[in-house]
Amino acid sequence: MRAQFVLSEIGVGLRRNLTMTFAVIVSVALSLALFGGSLLMREQASTMKGYWYDKVNVSIYLCNKTDAESFPSCAKGAATEDQKKEIRADLEKMNVVQKVQFETADEAYKHYKEQFDKKSPIAGFVTPDQMQESFRVKLKDPTKFEVISTAFSQRPGVQMVQDQKDVLSNLFNLVNGMNYAALGVMALMLVVALMLIVNTVRVSAFSRRRETGIMRLVGASSFYIQIPFIMEAAFAGLLGAGLACVLLVSGHYFLVNNWLVDQIDLIQFIGWDAVLAKLPLVLAIGLLMPALAAFAALRKYLKV
């Protein structure tokens, strides 16, 4: 097989179907960019879960003297010193508990002022005696919250038991929802790209039916005749995959590194190693997907 002839045929095919080739490149680029973005978003969600779940505490809030009217469990008044000692002793005996830390009302007030003094208009009206003392419980396994809740939610002197993991669940649900949406749009764009590839190959084969007929008459094999069409599709797909890689790298650089990192301090974003690890997969899919689609289309449409 002469490489020069194959390359010349590829150039001829690309020039004849320039508009459709451009559409293939753009659709492949968008679908693969969404595919790579969904993979990165899934990895980001896993990183966030691992980072935050490792820091999640279960908070056991104790009754204070102002809770009697608002919480039936605090009808007998503020938690006594004996109740606090009993709760701590029972927590330290539990196998699921890794660490127990007691936070006084003054410490809770100090933390509240640090977090909300400049953000909340009512922060100045809150006094230390309105803050709850609490036990901050670090679990060996964050999923064992129910063990703590069941054991202490009805205890005398306990206002409520709160799992901080529930506070993060909405964020993780949002990230997962965005991931599924990206996968759905990616699937739609992938179907569009495949249809464009098939139509482009079909038009190209039809426009060169005379040449392919002559090649068959002089003894050319089916593979020799088909290879220029397959390589045209593969080349267009590779260009689209390259553009998708540019979009992924640009998105991470401009959107994440130069904007989101400054806007959201609480999230540990994935680094360049995660982005660069996805690029070879995107390039491989961009090369193989159009080639296989073209091969399947040629079996049906290229009559030689």
Automatic annotation (TrEMBL):
Domain ABC3 transporter permease C-terminal as annotated: residue spans: 185-300
Topology relative to the lipid bilayer, per the entry, is: Multi-pass membrane protein
* Residues that span the membrane, as ranges: 21-41, 180-201, 222-255, 275-298
Which first-to-last residue range defines the signal peptide? none
Report keywords, A-Z. Cell cycle, Cell division, Cell membrane, Membrane, Transmembrane, Transmembrane helix
Among NCBIfam families, the record links this protein to:
FtsX_actino
What is the name attached to this protein's record?
Cell division protein FtsX
A single GO BP annotation from the record?
cell division
- On whether Membrane is a keyword of this UniProt record, the answer is yes
Q: Spell out the subcellular localization from the entry.
A: Cell membrane
Query: Organism, per UniProt?
Result: Streptomyces hiroshimensis
Q: Does the keyword Ribosomal protein apply?
A: no
Q: Which InterPro entries match?
A: ABC3_permease_C, FtsX, FtsX_actino, FtsX_ECD
The source's domain of life comes to Bacteria
Q: Tell me the ranges covered by the FtsX extracellular domain, including all copies.
A: 56-161
- Protein family according to the UniProt entry: Belongs to the ABC-4 integral membrane protein family. FtsX subfamily.
